[in-house]
Amino acid sequence: MKVLVLNGSPRGQKSNTLRITEAFLEGLEAAGKQEITRIDVREKKIEPCLGCFACWKDTPGKCVIKDDMEAILPLLVESDLVLWSFPLYYFSMPSKIKALMDRMLPLNLPFMEERPDGGASHPSRYDLSHQRTVVVSSCGFFSATNNYEALDAQFSIAFGKNNVEKIFCPQGEILQVKELKARTDEYLSIVRKAGTEYAENFAVSQSTKAELERPMLSEQIYAQVADASWGIEKPASSAAGAGSVGPGSGESALAGANGEDAVFIRQMTAFYNPEALSGAEAVLEISFTDLGRTYRLHLGKEKCAVLSAEEAANAGTAKLPLTRIETPYSVWKQISSGELDGAEAMMQGKYRVSGKFDLMMKMDALFDVSGEGGSSGVLNDAQKTLSKSRSKKTNMNLVIFAFLPLWIALPFSSRAGLISSIVMLILLQAAGSRWIIGIHERIAFSGLGLGILALAAGVSPHIVIPFSYVYFGMHWLLSCAFPVPLTAEYSKNGYGGDSALKNALFVKTNRIITAAWGILYLATAVWTVFLLSSPLSAWTGAINSLTPALCGLWTAWFQKWYPAKAASGK
Fold this sequence. Notes:
- With 570 residues, the chain is of the alpha/beta class.
- It folds into three domains: 2-216, Flavodoxin domain (Rossmann fold, 3-Layer(aba) Sandwich), CATH 3.40.50.360; 221-236 and 244-366, 2-Layer Sandwich (Nonspecific Lipid-transfer Protein, Chain A); 397-568.
- It has helices at 16-30, 54-57, 69-78, 95-102, 149-159, 181-201, 206-213, 219-228, 260-270, 309-314, 329-336, 342-347, 358-361, 363-366, 381-390, 397-401, 404-409, 414-430, 439-456, 461-479, 486-491, 504-531, 540-544, 546-568; strands at residues 2-7, 35-40, 81-87, 113-114, 120-121, 132-138, 164-169, 282-288, 293-299, 304-307, 322-327, 352-355.
- The strands form three sheets. It has a five-stranded parallel sheet, sandwiched between helices.
- Helix 8 packs antiparallel against helix 9 and helix 19 runs antiparallel to helix 20.
- Residues 1-147 form the Flavodoxin-like fold domain.
């Protein structure tokens, strides 16, 4: 298929729209090799149409203007697919590509004919029955609704409603924002799918169109991010009306601050996800050491506000938990864009953290630009609510409870241990309706099952009980060799879910904790052998519960102390 791409953006190769077009072309070529010709319209000499109609009556099919349209017109005739790519300019197209369209007049005959819709048109001078049209356009508005209607009608009338496929992308400006790469990449992958479908069927499916029409950001967040990108303070009252901010809203702390760092902070607040704090509040201070500027972010129950020192005192935030980040601005930008791993950069001493460190472990969830959490992802609010209501979480108790009958009931009686173990196994299987039954749960359940089989076969409790501790301890230790150690799978729920697993410091902390617990239970297996041979045999389970209690206190201390120590750079 011969494809002619008309890149009508004044930005040329830097065009946001062109990124969408390139993704569509990749989709086309995924279905088969295409013969693609690209034209950057801004680089061509294309004069406005003179309206002389010489191309109709004096020099049929030839324009009297001698410029680059002489080479472009034959390409328009020969192409099987003409792909128009341009941004929305004043609810239409940029002037130069509009001039190109006007100069297509030689391709038509002067005679009048009626279109199927009842309108009038001029028939084509050439047989273009083989030709199809695709329009790709992006804009800076938060929605395509009531913005693209004029263009939609223009292309439908000019090239036939059933012969034109359109991809109108609002929020196109975020395609160049590195911090939003996860979301824009998702959108571009849908565009590729649309390209493949078009190559196969000369149409994009309704389901794919619905995906493309879904906004990358919520309207409110996008408007806040877009407004902040200009680096100009928004007036307290504006023609836009809704959403204006002024003194008292937190914007006053940024009054007159129009540097790149101020823009970054304004945009950062737009992605605040209060759900990550579960109704709590905190203060996050970010000090850009290379710029000599510090921003105080009040993480409230509903929104994030940037406060001046005076506002911070008046707002009563002094009593809230405080986390302070000291970093060069360049480093923080690289972390935000994904070029640097935040946890690894911190362990390498590229920035320091002081104060309450728990906040750092939740940073990905607090400022959710990935779309994986909060209410600002690519899903709408109703879909988010439904998805959350259906989601299940992990629960470490399922792993631990599996062995309680063998540790507590079995030392008293083999019969009691066997019956309680069978009952526990049934209950744990039923727990799958509420909790996730993952690899660690299945390993634990298998251990309980082996214990049941051993007891049913008449194996002595003096063997089964120590073996269960060895099995349990080895399970924990071996999980340290995998990317996600056992405790991380469960403690992640308190640190933003799966996003916490991307934090190298969080994973390292849990690897140490998991190893410590594994060693503890292997050691427990050793002294259990002696306990079972002593007068305290029946109380083995109760005695063995003392060391886990102490280890639990150590764990609670260590999971706060170790990350904070690593972050302090001391």
